[in-house]
Amino acid sequence: MSREQIKTLLVNITTAAIAIGVLVVGYFVFLKKETPVVDSVPSIAAIVEETASIGAEIDETVRGLGDLERAVAGATIIFDMPAFKNLQNFSVEIPVEATGRPNPFVPTAWKLKMKTLE
What we know:
Helices cover 69% and strands 0% of the residues. It is an all-alpha fold. Keywords: Membrane, Transmembrane, Transmembrane helix.
């Protein structure tokens, strides 16, 4: 390699290193937002406390679901008992009758009789 080529190569490498350095410094100065450690400690403590309370709520819900499952299992035992299986239907069919009056605003016959008696 000639001196001219080595000189051009060194200038290109130096220019590239300076450009990369400017980009890195610009990133850290303008784009990267650092959260101070002092401010993040209370927020971490709050997150831990909230997570613990959510965990306690989940445990309570799971226990409640277990209790509910046992209660339902106990209630379904009734359907397996012979006394329940031997029940008979004693219902009576109710005949269909006409309901209501053609004109509900007309006084009824018994009201008209009461007026005449007064």
